[in-house]
Each structure stands twice: as C-alpha cells, then as structure tokens.
Amino acid sequence: MGSNPTPSVQDPATDADPAVSRDGRVGGRPLRRGSDGGEGLGRLGRVATKLTNRVLDWRSRGASETFRGHRINVFRQDGEGVPVVLLHGFPSSSYDWKTLLDEVRDRPVLAFDFLGFGLSDKPRDHLYSLHWQADLTEELVRRHLPDQPVFIVAHDMGTSVTTELMARDIEGHLTFEIAGALLFNGSMVIDRASLTRTQKLLRSGIGPLAARLASRRVFDLEFGGLFSPDHPLTDEEADDQWSLICHNRGRSLNHRLIHYITERERLTDRWHGAISDWPGSLSLAWGELDPVATTAVLDAVIELRPGVPLNRLPTIGHYAQIEDPAAIAAALEQAIERSAA
Q: Which residues pair with 233 in a beta bridge?
C-alpha cells in the first residue's frame, strides 16, 4: 500500500512550550482474564488487553521513529499530488484513518500517533501539551515531506494542533508550508462544546482515579455515543479502539491526555485568532449529529471565519472518517482543489 519510514530516526533539539521542559516533564498481582476478549482488572485497576489482529496488521504497515527520546508510530503512503498530513483526535490514534486511506490510496500521506496515543510511547510523567504535539508534527513533516507544501486534515484534538501550526505560520515561525487545511468535528471553540461525562470526570479532582477505573463497558457506552444512528460503532471497531487505548498502560493516562482542553481555554485568543486571520485556504466538514463538537461549535467557528467553505454531513456523528470515509475523502478533494485555485 505504501512505503514505510526508516525506523528509529533521531531528532534534532527544538524548542517547545516555554512552560514545559524539552522532554515534556513537569515539576501487583497477576492480571486475570475477563470475559470480553482478554480484559482483566488487578489490584491496581490495571487493564490487560491484547492488540487485536486488525491493529497488529495496521502496526506492521508503519514504523517506529524517535522524537525527543520517545518512540512515535508513523505511517507513510506514496502517491501523486500534494501530500496529505492526517492529525487524529482524543482518545484515539492514526488508526482512525485506516478506511479513509482506501479512499485516497493514490495520494501521498503521512499519519502518526501523537505521543501518549495509540502505538506511540505513553510516558507517565509527561505534560501532554499541544505545543509539543505541534513540534512533533513539524519535525515529521521535515523528515518525510521536506521542501514541499502539505495539506492538513485534522479531527477533534488535531484541529487545535492545526490552529497552533497556523498561528506559527502567521508569526513566520512555521518550518513548512501549509497548502491548505480541512478541519472537522473539533471543539475549537471550547465554551460552545458539550463535554462527555467522562471528559468532565477526567478534568476533575478525581481524574486520576477515573482514568484508572475506566472500564470497557463505560467506553462502549460513551465512545459508541459519539457515532450516529445510521452509522453505529461496530463491535470490531470498539475492540480495536479499546485495545489501542489500553496498549502500554495508556488507559490510565487519560486524565493527563485531556490537558488539551485546558490549553484550548488558555490559548483561546491565539488559536481563535489563527482561525480568523490565517491567510491560507481553510475548509470545514462537519458531522452534524456530533454530541460533543455540536453544530453550536460549528456556528462559532463560522463566526470566527465568515464564508469558510463547509461540507455539511447531516447524518454523521463525531467520527466522520470512520462512519463515512467516502464523504471525508470527497470533502478533502474539494478542499485541495480550492487551495490550488
């Protein structure tokens, strides 16, 4: 399907968020098998869940690289035309794009798991800043797609990584050229979003406990609730996503990974300003049945950038790239055509 990057590529030193150090640091019994595919809880609330065969196949198509001492799972696909960089959301990973890749098999693509997600490293003492994830994005584009414009497609948390990249571009600090961007179903205007009960718990004082005690049953309920009635979460997809979240003890990190919402609050002026002022070609697609990044969020983004091109997806929920990858592929092709006009 595509070519894999060279494993264990080393990175140069780069600056991160000044509030975070360069490496991102700030200031039992045997597990028993459960009845739902290998999940079990030990004394410390740890979950043992094996990666599914589908996820193992996905892993075999990528490779591991190193950035600031951490392993990052990277997927590359060769093709013709402007390269596409795919930025995933919380709490999932680049695995979200697997069916979309079938729709854009002729295009060059770079996708990867942000630190703390999917098959990438999940350090326990890291402050998961979107500034750090934006630095990671810049470095991987430099390695794999040097000296050429790239088109960004971003979902959920990835939309705020993109607005940080756009802000850097406005400032003249970005190390690559953005040919255009397609953003969909991300709570970029956080005060208009409707957070899930789990998101609220993870941000609360009992966040660490809530993360440790998270169960497959609750995951199925809340993650499944992000999908539309016409395109429900399948059992296979739920198995895959849960195995990736639990991989390398990642489930108990969610109270740290949710830090991006605090950043959305703290950096509102910067990131909203990027939506309004970035001079490049920006497009939106939106699953209108999203219960979190609702149409109220969409309306707020349109207020920031009146006239922004928009593909409305009236029967789709939060995970449009999983529910209807052909619709996102069509929106992408239209957005790329606009950016080239």
A: none
pLDDT digit string (tens) for 327-336? 999 999 999 9
Output 231 or 205, whichever has higher pLDDT: 231
pLDDT of res. 44: 37
pLDDT of residue 196: 77
Residue 166 corresponds to which tokens in the numbers above? 């756009």
Give CA–CA dist 261/263, Å, rounded: 5
The C-alpha torsion from 191 through 194 and 199 to 201, rounded to 10°, is: 90
CATH class of domain segment(s) 53-340 = alpha beta
Domain ranges (residues) in the chain: 53-340
What local confidence, expressed as pLDDT, does residue 137 receive?
98
Query: CB under 8 Å to 318, separation ≥6 — which residues?
Result: 156, 185, 226, 227, 287, 290, 291, 292, 293
> Which residues neighbour 289 within 8 Å (Cβ) at sequence distance 6 or greater?
228, 229, 314, 315, 316, 317
- DSSP bridge partners of 66: 71
